[in-house]
Automatic annotation (TrEMBL):
Keyword check for Transit peptide: yes
The protein, known as: Acyl-coenzyme A thioesterase THEM4
A UniProt-annotated Pfam family: 4HBT
Protein family per UniProt: Belongs to the THEM4/THEM5 thioesterase family.
Subcellular localization: Cell projection, Ruffle membrane; Cytoplasm; Membrane
Domain Thioesterase: from-to ranges: 75-135
Swiss-Prot/TrEMBL keywords: Apoptosis, Cell membrane, Cell projection, Cytoplasm, Fatty acid metabolism, Hydrolase, Lipid metabolism, Membrane, Transit peptide
Record EC number: 3.1.2.2
Catalytic activity: tetradecanoyl-CoA + H2O = tetradecanoate + CoA + H(+); decanoyl-CoA + H2O = decanoate + CoA + H(+); octanoyl-CoA + H2O = octanoate + CoA + H(+); hexadecanoyl-CoA + H2O = hexadecanoate + CoA + H(+)
Gene3D superfamilies to which the protein is assigned, alphabetical: Hotdog Thioesterase (3.10.129.10)
Length: 194
């Protein structure tokens, strides 16, 4: 029987990721890509408020503090919320690639329960790129960057243009985003590729 293949395994011909020359410096705090984003948005009252920083190479780190609103079982984080934190962290690699991409597939391993009030320290990196397909991986650790591994994910992101959002988003929010100079500046920053 041949080895199992997965859409999360980079195909032959995939290449290593390239850090964009204008990527934020390692350690630099990445802003929100959208103020209403459930993962990183500053104005999203119900969100995770992830604080993400650029790393070395094509990597990022993030911190997510688990709140009572994120519970699934008493005193423990909901698995879907943890998947969101992993998804958002991998998605933030967009800032380092300067490429807009959306999640096509996300596979999550839950290793340890994560209590409320935990600071979950996440790190993510791009492992390979093949055409519009971007392969990423992320790990979440409890309490510190070298704490015990609680969650892991592998993901396939697909590169899209800003038009993806303009064509698919609800009119009200798209109009507001296009009228917000800060939002337009963020979107433009991702459109310029060498
Ligand atoms: C003006 C407002 C602007 C606002 C935004 C501004 C800036 C944003 C900037 C930066 C973003 C920064 C950070 C983001 C951080 C976190 C966000 C979290 C990420 C998310 O939470 S994001 C939401 C969830 N996400 C979706 O909402 C996607 C829904 N979906 C689709 O919109 C389509 O489905 C799409 C576009 C994915 C593909 O559609 P498509 O037509 O363009 O391309 P196609 O189907 O041809 O796929 C091309 C190749 O990918 C392979 N492929 C595709 N899907 C696959 C799958 N699932 N599994 C395995 N392989 C797959 C195909 O097999 C083919 O492979 P091959 O080339 O080898 O044949």
């Amino acid at each position: 029987m041949s080895a199992p293949t997965s859409s999360l395994t980079p195909p032959e011909g995939a290449r290593p990721p390239v850090r964009h020359p204008d990527a934020p410096a390692p350690g630099e705090l990445l802003g929100a890509h959208y103020d209403q984003c459930f993962g990183c948005g500053r104005d999203q009252a119900h969100g995770l408020h992830l604080e993400t920083r650029a790393g070395e190479g094509v990597s990022v780190t993030a911190v997510f503090t688990v709140k009572a609103a994120h519970q699934g079982a008493p005193g423990l984080a909901h698995g879907g919320v943890l998947a969101t934190a992993l998804d958002e962290t991998i998605g933030s690699l967009s800032w380092v690639l300067r490429t807009i991409a959306v999640t096509g597939r996300l596979e999550t391993d839950y290793v340890l329960p994560v209590p409320v009030d935990t600071e979950l320290h996440l790190d993510a990196r791009v492992t390979a790129v093949h055409g519009r397909k971007i392969y990423g991986t992320a790990t979440g650790r409890i309490g510190a960057p070298d704490g015990p591994v609680a969650v892991r994910a592998n993901a396939l992101f697909i590169e899209v243009k800003v038009d993806h959002f303009i064509e698919n988003g609800r009119d009200t929010e798209i109009r507001a985003a296009l009228e917000d100079p800060d939002q337009v500046r963020v979107a433009r920053a991702f459109e310029v590729n060498p």
